[in-house]
């Protein structure tokens, strides 16, 4: 199996970069708004509002930025054009209708096609190995 899209210098296909309307769903959104309930870290992660939780230490301080640096280290090897275009497609997809979002995603995907990272991703898939980002 091949590496995920941005690792291969591309974007998710077939609308994969388009956020689902409401993200967590209207039922939960209404619950949070109508009840004025405050979500704390683990619950926010469980419903998909955040991806990571940093626990406070006994002094009530957040841990070192190590977790953030570890996460950034996972993003760094990905194709930079693919990351930029995926971010654009997701962010703009939050503000527009789905059909327009698909068109923006297709335009963003087209920007990844001539990159060395896209070619490396295809070659790596064919050779059944991890891609080595050219950072281009």
Automatic annotation (TrEMBL):
<dbReference type="GO" id="GO:0005739">
    <property type="term" value="C:mitochondrion"/>
</dbReference>
<keyword id="KW-0456">Lyase</keyword>
<dbReference type="InterPro" id="IPR029045">
    <property type="entry name" value="ClpP/crotonase-like_dom_sf"/>
</dbReference>
<dbReference type="GO" id="GO:0004300">
    <property type="term" value="F:enoyl-CoA hydratase activity"/>
</dbReference>
<dbReference type="GO" id="GO:0006635">
    <property type="term" value="P:fatty acid beta-oxidation"/>
</dbReference>
<protein>
    <recommendedName>
        <fullName>Enoyl-CoA hydratase domain containing 2</fullName>
    </recommendedName>
</protein>
<dbReference type="Pfam" id="PF00378">
    <property type="entry name" value="ECH_1"/>
</dbReference>
<dbReference type="InterPro" id="IPR001753">
    <property type="entry name" value="Enoyl-CoA_hydra/iso"/>
</dbReference>
<dbReference type="InterPro" id="IPR014748">
    <property type="entry name" value="Enoyl-CoA_hydra_C"/>
</dbReference>
<comment type="similarity">
    <text>Belongs to the enoyl-CoA hydratase/isomerase family.</text>
</comment>
């Amino acid at each position: 199996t091949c590496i995920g899209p941005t690792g291969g210098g591309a974007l998710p296909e077939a609308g994969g970069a388009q956020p689902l309307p409401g993200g967590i769903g209207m039922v939960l959104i209404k619950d949070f708004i109508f009840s004025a309930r405050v979500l704390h870290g683990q619950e926010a992660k469980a419903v998909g509002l955040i991806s990571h939780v940093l626990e406070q230490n006994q002094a009530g301080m957040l841990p070192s930025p190590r977790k953030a640096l570890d996460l950034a280290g996972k993003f760094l090897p990905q194709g930079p054009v693919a990351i930029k275009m995926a971010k654009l497609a997701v962010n703009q997809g939050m503000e527009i209708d789905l059909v327009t979002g698909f068109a923006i995603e297709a335009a963003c995907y087209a920007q990844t096609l001539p990159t060395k990272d896209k070619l490396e991703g295809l070659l790596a898939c064919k050779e059944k190995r991890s891609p080595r980002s050219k950072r281009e």
